[in-house]
Amino acid sequence: MSGTAKWRMGVSIGFNPLAKEGPANMSALYNKLYEEPAYGVPETALYLRVPYNTLRYWLTGFQKMPPMILPAETDPVRLSFLNLLECHVLAGMRKIYNLKLPKVRRALAKIGEQYPQQHPLVSEAFFTDRTDLFIEKLGKLVNVSQHGQMGLNFYRMHLERVQIDPKGMFRFFPFVSETSPTEPKLIEINPLVGFGKPVIAGTGISTAIIASRFNARESIADLAAEYGCSAPQIEEAIRWERALPIAA
């Protein structure tokens, strides 16, 4: 397979270069870098703000249950970028009203039956232009009540943190301060930029480098001028790094 090719897991790609950027309007193109085992479990847990043991359970089942998400590598466990997105989407699913883990597992099994692909949560949400239909079907699968629509909106908010650019490439904007629709999209994780590590969105500027220079007492104004960024971009990079525990 070439470096960039259309997804070949049974999904019909409907790429529209004139569509508005976003998951509901444009489908992604496949890139082999999306499958590379690039992220460890502790790193992924920090990026997604998911408890470490919760993430390990999703990926291993603690050897007592089948994993909910199949990682790119199992010994040791390492995740691909698509695994990262799957875990991000699964985090959104868990917030659906009264949706307990066994119900999530059953829903994933049904999704796997209806969409027999390696990454059904990701491929149906982002590799096609049927996001709204997928959310509607997901709601039926988990039997969400009328009150559960609030949860589905929360799930949609997670999907909206992933955008498809005009070239059909992924852009993932993790939550920084809070899980909220008002969270700015200033931090980006993209396997095609900065080796897949967090950068200031739209640039290749590492958030870790910005934070280390700020910690060395360089001012936000000086950093913004040197890197050609705005002060809010620099501040968000620092905020992102400060939200990552040192123990990571």
Model description:
With 248 residues, this protein is mainly α. The longest helix is centred in the middle third of the chain and has 14 residues, at 101-114. The chain is built from ten helices and nine strands. It has two domains: 1-171, no CATH class; 173-248, Arc Repressor Mutant, subunit A, CATH 1.10.10. The two termini are 35 Å apart. Helix 3 packs antiparallel against helix 7, helix 8 packs across helix 10 and helix 9 (220-227) packs across helix 10. The model is unreliable at 1-26 and 144-151 (pLDDT under 50).
Draw up the topology in text.
Elements: E1 4-5, E2 30-31, E3 39-40, H1 41-48, H2 52-60, E4 73-74, E5 77-79, H3 81-93, H4 101-114, H5 120-126, H6 131-141, H7 149-159, E6 162-164, E7 170-172, E8 187-188, E9 199-200, H8 207-215, H9 220-227, H10 231-242
Short description:
This protein is mainly alpha-helical and 248 residues long. Helix content is 41%, strand content 8%.
Could you give a short account of the major beta sheet?
A: 3 strands, antiparallel
The helix/strand order is EEEHHEEHHHHHEEEEHHH
What percentage of the residues does DSSP assign to strands (E)? 5-15%
Domain module tally:
2
The low-pLDDT segments are: 1-26, 144-151
Return the structural class: mainly alpha
* Overall mean pLDDT: 78
Measured between the Cα atoms of the first and last residue, the distance is 35 Å
Shape: globular
Estimated radius of gyration: 18 Å
DSSP helical segment count: 10
- Number of E-type strands: 9
Helix fraction bin: 40-55%
Q: How would you write the strand order of the largest sheet?
A: 3-5-4
